[in-house]
Amino acid sequence: MGYFEFTIKRFISAATTLFIASIAIFSILRLIPGDPAVIILGEAATEASIQAQRERLGLDLPVHHQYLNWLSGVLTLQMGSSIASGTDIAEYVLARYPRSMALAFSSLFVALSIAIPAGVVSATNRNKKYDYITLVATQVGISFPQFVLGIFLIMTFSASFGVLPSSGYVSPFDNFVGFITHLALPAITLGLINAAVLTRFVRSEMLEQLNEDYVRTAYAYGLNSNFIERKYVLRNALAPALTVVGLQFAKLMGGLVIIEEVFSYPGMGVLILDALFARDYPVLQVGLLVVAGTFIVANFVIDLLYGWLNPKIRY
Amino acid sequence: MNEDTLLQVNELKTHFKIDRGDVKACNDISYAIKKGETIGFVGESGAGKSVTGRSILNLIDSPGKIIGGEIIYKGQDLLNMTEKEIQKIRGNEIAIVFQDSSTAFNPSYTVGEQISDVIQNHFDMEYEEARERTIKLLDDVNIPNPRERFETYPHQYSGGMRQRALIALALSCDPDLIIADEITTGIDVTTQAKILNLLKELKKERDLSMQFITHDMGVVAEICDRVAVMYAGEIVEIGPIQEIFNNPKHPYTMGLLGSLPQTSGAKEELESIPGNMPDLIETPSGCSFRDRCEFATEECAQHNPELEELVTNTNSTNHKSACIRVNEINWNNGRETNKDTSSNGSRRDTNYLNKDEDPLVDVYKLKKYFDPEGQSWVDMLLNGRKYVHAVDDVTLNIYEGETVSLVGESGCGKTTLGRTITQLYNEDSGTVLFAGTDITDAKKSELRKLRRNYQVIFQDPFSSLNPRRTVGKIIGRPMKLHGLVDTEEEKRDAVKELLVEVGLKESHIDRYAHEFSGGQKQRIGIARALAVEPDFIVCDEPVSALDVSVQAKVLNLLMDLQEERNLTYLFIAHNLEVVKHISDRVAVMYLGEIVEMGPIDKILSPPYHPYTEILLSSIPSLEIGEQELQNLPEGEIPSPIDPPSGCRFHTRCPYAMPECSEESPINITTNKNHRIKCHIFDENKMEGKPKSKEQIIAEQTENVDPKSNNQSISSAKNTNQSVPNPQDEKQSVGDD
Question: Residues B264, B581: contact at Cβ < 8 Å?
């Protein structure tokens, strides 16, 4: 089959999923009870202004036209304006999306840098001291609410020690150090919680792999344990761990909303949250689409990585 | 210890510590391997053969531990070495090949890289050099296109090729000793034949010593020079192979050889060893075999016999036996491995086929296709929908009271056929008539009632019994469902009766499945099948997972039950010796089609379908001596997703003609209801061909294994009689 064909298949799958997701998101506004125009303008609006609003929203067009208009608009970055602030939605997205992605990736980085080594060492020292410490720590981590951890870190590092800022964002182009310090606490908060889950998973995958026959073959042919663990076992353990990362990504995106709120970090998360409270549906739709799209693309990339790690999938 | 000895094992003790106590897997094992010698280790499961092999390289994981003995290799005691020192021996001087080739390799790296890693680990070589060496090794083990195969992954290899790649891995550092741990178990007979041929070649070329662990006596006869028979963690007999096979001097060895189907006449009761292998934790005092030994006396319980050398008048035979009564027992009452098993006296006369009776089971053009694994909608979009042609247009009849065997190699569709006939799968097209009723067309409620008449015995006794139910419930429930019993009392009584009938005890009724041994579980499976008093039973490889002595008992039981209850069997198997023993008629399957079908003596004698010929000649015989296993099929079995055009066997057939790839052959029926699906037997096709049909049949006669067909050689002049007379009616439809 080959890697190329595999990629094409995955791409078709991802594109179809995204398409279906976009239809679902588009339908949200249409499925909300009541006339969208009335919802936006309020009960007291005049008949004429409602009618005008309906036209402006394109509600008098057939549904599939509306959908196509909307979709083509999103793709060409003509997303309309926010009802609440009147700002061009595209402006919001272009500014905030990179910020959220920076946060997401840095927290993923934190999570993996902790989880992979911790999981491996735990698995290879099973039932010894180190393993028990890890198991307890991860148990705590999994049960700890994200926002509590966030507030706790703020209290420690910002309030008490004053080393890291508690909120806000600085562009990397303005001040790179500032960018990092503002990113640090939110990323660590999200990262630690995810690390707890991932460590456990890496550990259990490693343990399972260590029981496999090919490990026995490797030992039988004189290879030593370091080599076996690092080269042979890890690769097999990482592949399933990767799929968990993909699923965790969804949790990560959800976590973004909370963490951005706690740290007043101006990203997509707070945009969506505010839009939800303000009934700012155009913004909400675009926001959800962006999030869904990110999730689908992330899983697509992970699928490709998985295919690279696990030859059985692509041949 | 003399110069010739490569490995000397003295009083090896390997124990496993579990809750109940210490499992003495190796209990004072001593033996020696000479340079260039192949020693076979036989015995049934649980005897300790694999543990012995792995102990040599100290590959015993906790809870196991080698607690005593010494293993002297080239002057050093391997058990005294540090981990680092023994790592240098592993793979480099002594290599072990494991059984399951599908899991022995790391799935994430190419085969070539894994072999190169080992080479680079032991030798100071650059990657390029190691790579070239690996490619040469792959070539040496007859893997085609070794350069390309270097870059492919284990799952892309076929089973036989993977096993050969494992052998290449074993040879990679030029070891002196190879330990082969059940490497031919679980693979097809033709693949096994190829691997044995390969090993014999390599043995000679490289002057290798081998420790060949197996439970298959036929394989031992093919390849070993000496044999050690293991029982309950000890070696009970050891000696040159001729001695062990023709002159066994231990009751267990005799029993083992006697349980083999090929040592009994067809349909005769097989000899079996009563009882089971003892618990290795609380081994009985004295001789561990005495509870099952027909020659046991009081003395046998006194002390555990040592391996004593048997001395004859002439000289030392190097044949040792651990039996204190070795000189007292009259061994000539024992086995004759060359017994004439061709006598058809006890075989069913298949005249019943010529009567106008309707068959009990009538299968017509049955088709069952599956979706291949991993086919996503995207695949179907891009490549069109593909199917696994598991069962393709199969027609066959089974008459009341007979045993029809279905043979073929793994993947040929026999299990699928058995399941589709009993409607465990819904067929895609075709009909199955049971006693005149079309069960493929029956409504669900009708089908339920009809199921009472035909039952299935499954292959794996471990997974086919519900672990959460007692034996009584497993067997009793079908009785209740079909209304054979009314009250709980009645049911329990009926179940108890049945338990005794299959050789279990009444007290077993309230036990759970996991408390029984493999053979006993299979008996429970048989009882369950019999519970509803069916007429027809599909036996899906019922003895494949069992040890040889247990197999003998279960086969005896099945044969007895058939006589008592006038049962009809469809017996699915891949072990041809078992098939030869119990069948009346045989159907040979290949890639979803039946290529030959007929009474067993017709199948075992020419004319053969080319595939049948190959199958029969691949069976290792118990005759000692260098026998080249000939006529092996070329290449690998094609995928059932894309079967070859025309005759499906043509890609591997030694007699293939051009039309074989164009047209699918029609079934040619000889008299006596023997049909072959092959162009060779079609008069029209053979006209004017370089090899006439007579020539081909004569060739088949010559190449045949003398053991499997004693008639053929003496009746070579009678060949013409078994060839269909051109004047005979030639039916072109496959109905029997």
Answer: yes
